[in-house]
Amino acid sequence: MVTLKMLKPYYIKNEKNFVRIILAYQYFSVIIKNKVYQFIPVESNEIRVNRRTEKIENIDAVFAFQNGKEIVNVPMVKLITLPEFLEQIHDIARPYYFSAQNEIEAEEREDYTAIIAELERQNILRLIDKALDERDEETFKAMATVLKNMDQ
């Protein structure tokens, strides 16, 4: 039976669609049959997590662990059955996920920007009306130029 002892990323690489958690010596260890095995980067050395789906993508990866001269290969498929492994991976990658909340916040910011732009446009139109009422040709021309630039 495999148990996670420690999992810390050596470094994290944030890409467009993936978070790559790079592993190195002394940062990743497991317990197998009451023996501690340290990760060695012989085969795979990274865990690739999809930023949108939050799922581990490289499930075909195999990690090598060493205790003395004994080397054990543990496939990712076995590691993802360990709840503590998945928790640690998601805790590490969570700040890099495209969450639905972030997408909602971006849409809200776009909505606010559009509302502010419309309010500014209406304000310019009011200033043009005021300049016409007061027969202020200079302010009228200035506000007409501002309105023209806003529409471009």
Task: Write structural notes for this entry.
The chain has 152 residues and is α+β, with helices and mostly antiparallel strands. 42% of the residues lie in helices and 28% in strands. Strands 1-4-5-7-8 form a 5-stranded antiparallel sheet. A 3-stranded antiparallel sheet has the order 2-3-6, covered by helices on one side. α3 packs antiparallel against α4 (137-151). The model has no long low-confidence stretch (mean pLDDT 89).
In short:
With 152 residues, the protein is α+β, with helices and mostly antiparallel strands. The protein has helices spanning 76-79, 83-93, 100-133, 137-151, and strands at 2-7, 11-14, 18-22, 28-32, 35-40, 46-50, 62-67, 70-75.
**Count of individual beta strands:** 8
Low-confidence stretches: none
Beta-strand residue percentage: 25-35%
Mean pLDDT: 89
Write the layout of secondary structure elements.
Layout: E1 2-7, E2 11-14, E3 18-22, E4 28-32, E5 35-40, E6 46-50, E7 62-67, E8 70-75, H1 76-79, H2 83-93, H3 100-133, H4 137-151
Antiparallel strand pairs: 1-4, 2-3, 3-6, 4-5, 5-7, 7-8
Name the descriptors.
4 helices, 152 residues, alpha+beta
